[in-house]
Amino acid sequence: MINVALSHDVDRIKKTYQYFTQLVSAAKKLDGNKFNNQIKSFFSSEPYWCFDKMIEIEKKYSVKSTFFILNESIDFQFTNINSWKLSLGRYKINESKLVDKILWLDQNGWEIGVHGSYNSYKDYNLLSDEKKTLENILGHEVIGIRQHYLNLDQNTWNLHRDAGFKYDSSWGFTDGIGFKEEKEKPFAPFKDSFIVYPLHVMDYCFINESQRWEKFQEILEVVDKNNSLLVINWHQRVFNKSEFPQYSENYTKIIEKLKNLNANFYTIGEYYNKFYNLI
After folding, report:
1. Helix H or strand E encompassing 111
2. What is the domain-level CATH number for residue 274?
3. How far apart (Å, rounded) are the C-alpha atoms in residues 132 and 121?
4. Which of 235, 147, 148, 258 lies closest to 196, judged by CA?
5. How does pLDDT run across 117-152, given as a tens digit for each residue?
6. Residues spanned by the domain of 231
């Protein structure tokens, strides 16, 4: 039996500098369709919001997922180009529209986790603050985390556990799909109740894989054989079809394929609560 957990990293909820960078990119590539779509996006209301589109898809197939919410704190520094992408366009986790959506998701069976800010993987105080901020919004404990850019070092899981997280889902590829270091199953790095759930399939890695469906089938066979948990990550902004062609369609096709195989769908937190003591 295939077990699967759908998840979403909420990196950005508003389009900012991308209005210009994407337009320039389309012009350089002489991509007329993309150029026209970028022009249209100037007149579109919140092209990166996309929560309702995601919910509509998941409701259709009676599945729920885990949303990892980012609380980035890097300040914009004009002389530090590396800070630009991280700071420009970041959202405020306490803005009312987002809070309303987070609470609605939480109250209706979706899971909310922390998407650790860029430097939090090496900073206990940042981790603790981000966890407490999200818990104050929700009114209850948050047990899961996935690091932004899947940042990890040799001490990150220690920090996650010390901050009170019960699971992490940052172990995976940023440039491919499959099993990083052949770790396809959840594992307990400290031989206790803190569990790592490897990430197997990320949206843009899947789209860029030339043999995506063949590779996906291979992943399914391994997960099924080893009674593992297939973890999938689709960022919320890619559900804008004009901005990200094929992304929403492929997400839907993945769910349909898994439904046809009678897969069991869980949020990562649900799977943790049901099976962590079996690892």
Report:
1. strand 111-116
2. 3.20.20.370
3. 16
4. 147
5. 999 999 999 999 999 999 999 999 999 999 999 999
6. 3-16+48-278
Q: What angle do CA 240, 242, 246 make, to 5 degrees?
A: 80
Query: What pTM, to 2 d.p., does this model score?
Result: 0.94
Closest CA to 228 of 177, 185, 172: 185
In sequence order, what are the residues at sequence separation of 6 or more whose Cβ sits closer than 8 angstroms to the Cβ of residue 83? 74, 75, 76, 77
Kindly write down the DSSP assignment for every residue of 144-206, as one continuous string: EEEEGGG---TTHHHHHHHHT-SEE---S-SS--S-GGG--S-B-TTSSS-EE----EEHHHH
Tell me the torsion sign for CA atoms 248, 250, 256, 259. negative
> Quick check: is 21 in a domain?
no
Distance CA 236, CA 57 (A): 12
Q: How far apart are CA 190 and CA 78, in angstroms?
A: 41
Q: Which of 162, 153, 167, 144 is nearest to 118 (CA)?
A: 153
